Amino acid sequence: MRIALFATCIGDTMFPNAVKSTALLLTRLGHEVVFPPGQTCCGQMHVNTGYQPDALPLVENYVESFGDESIDAVVVPSGSCVGSVRHQHEVVASRYGTPRLCGQVETLKAKTYELSELLVDVLGVTDVGAYYPHRVTYHPTCHSLRMLRVGEKPLQLLRAVRDIDLVELPEADSCCGFGGTFALKNAETSTAMLADKIRNISGTSAEYCCASDSSCLMHIGGGMTRLQMGTQTVHLAEILASVEDHAGATA
Amino acid sequence: MTRVALPSPAFPPRAPEGAGNLRGSESFPDAAHHELANSQLRRNISNATHTIREKRLQVTGELPDWEQLRDSGSAIKTDVMNRLPELLEQFEAAVTARGGVVHWAQDAVEANEIVAGLVRETGSEEVIKVKSMATQEIGLNEHLESEGIRAYETDLAELIVQLGHDTPSHILVPAIHRNRSEIREIFLNEMADVDPHLDDDPASLAAAARRFLRHKFMTTPVAISGTNFGIAETGTLGVVESEGNGRMCLTMPQTLITVMGIEKIIPTYADLEVFLQLLPRSSTGERMNPYTSMWTGVTPEDGPQSFHLVLLDNGRTAALADKIGREALNCIRCSACLNVCPVYERTGGHAYGSTYPGPIGAVLTPQLAGMHGSHDPNSSLPFASSLCGACFDACPVKIDIPSLLVELRHQKVEQAAFGSEAAAMRAASIAMSSSGKFTVAQKAAGLGRLIAGKKGKISALPPPLSGWTDARDIPKPPKQTFRQWWGSAEGQREIADARRQAHE
Hints:
- By secondary structure, chain A is α/β, with parallel strands linked by helices.
- Chain A has helices spanning about 10-15, 15-30, 45-50, 50-65, 80-85, 90-95, 100-110, 115-120, 140-145, 155-160, 180-185, 185-205, 215-225, 235-240; strands at about 1-5, 30-35, 75, 110-115, 135-140, 165, 210, 230-235.
- The two termini of chain A are about 25 Å apart.
- Residues about 245-250 of chain A have low confidence and may be disordered.
- In chain B, strands 1-10-7-4-2-3 form a 6-stranded parallel β-sheet, sandwiched between helices.
- In chain B, strand 5 and strand 6 (about 235-240) form a beta hairpin.
- Chains A and B meet through helix 1, helix 2, helix 3, helix 4 and helix 9 of A and helix 1, helix 16, helix 18, helix 19 and helix 20 of B.
């Protein structure tokens, strides 16, 4: 397949490893990965904060960047950005855009996938041949869980990883408290939610907390480094792209 | 020629300011600041919501047609909102035909005056009350008090809140924020003739309340209720409850006054079948609530001989005129959204400043009472959510609360964009409208590496970003953005290696 990679603004700028891992993983699986250079951001922050008209240029840029018909699928290593493409782009396009834009949004909505959806539903793979000899707990981010309904897909992928010690996270489906600008506008409530999430992660004694959304991981990780917890965050793509090299270490 | 400047009519009107309980005195973040610091409250609410959550999942899980029931509930309520005037007329005619008297109240002020007038006509200076959100919303007890009429709440939790000079913290469990030792204290201090050796065993506390209330049931000639449903077809009203105190109020007194929000209507008796499955399961996690009481007009020599129904607007018509408000009016006040909400779980109900707290309150309150500028506490409510979506999953009538909150945020910004935030959002929009500009902005983000320095993380930023760094670090921005790596020789080599591995 010819798969276009949407790095997302935060992935491109702050978490390039998650995006790199996505590119390398899909390439290793035999697909042609392309990176349309015009891409920037899905516009979720603008819509969720109430600035819908300001999201229009971003929606337009998304359809221009990924409009190439030779692209079979767009992969995004972020559940919430896929949620935005699926549920918010048409709101913005129908309110402020042209009928043509609405049509383009519909087309792209149908072929934009979160990484675990692409792997399991479209490519039909659950064992990607990864190797990750660490104790890991998985946090299912709210938008993956409830907007995309990815369900067990990320866990199916993780369970197939060799030598992983996957431990269940108590109260996994509780929000970590990120919520975009919620973390700033209601910083104290957000922190209270984060505290409980971190307590649950800590209880698992995991070395890594894994999720499919860099922004949630930035929130959780930001709390954990502040507490000097010694638990790190890792994106699902990074685990799935991890393989045993000749020296026996992960690469 | 004289120029006459008439004020533009605000129609349909929102609930008025200064009457009732649809507006707090502080913004949500400020109110939450106080509540978050109350560790007893945090613990009480967390325990209670987790318990109800589990029970709800269990009893909804055992119904094979739960999703279809939710669809039916949603469809019935949507139909009701689409033809509310017609149904209300039918309802009024049916109530009147069966001996009830219908009053229409535009807002809290009118409703309070109507009810106080009706009580005065009876000559009683005391009324007993069935737990009711509508009368909480309009601040009826306070109004009656100012008219020299004492209202006694008979629902145990409402009684605790009332005696504690407190306000409810939850739609269904108003005293959710109190534990039993706090309740014992309240009873000892506020209840006349209470046993001074009262212990904090729930059975002892319930017995003390029973002794107190029984006397009221036997001696008070007027009762005031709300209603869960008003049936247009028959003029029947219904209340579902757990303790039976409501039924005592509905049957013992001579005069019954019901205050009903106009959105509570359902078309036919048969529709109850859907809601009597949805409501108890969603609210208390019970298959059926212990008491379901229904009454239609008056029945000679049986129950109250005088029945008045006050139909309350108080911003509902305004909500109905709005696409978001119309969907929010479908709410049947089960409180399932509160019990699953991570924000409510930490702050409790008081932080919302309204009779309607939690996710649905954050939608409903600004719809009923309006958001008047950026200093109005109600303007902060649409932002009091992380948009995690748990409320939408729990709602028995499938109200898409997160989407409604996002739309309300949009309305808020349209009405009063926040200065520096609006500028920042506009700047971000421009910066991300093309990759050329975005790449420049990424370079600026790279300056974060300087701030982070050798620590490898950013731990202090100026406001408003200090909200983040007060409790959380930001990782040091990486040396290379993804697109730089992709465009680099190293990136291309790694991709080429990966391609070779694919063919091996």
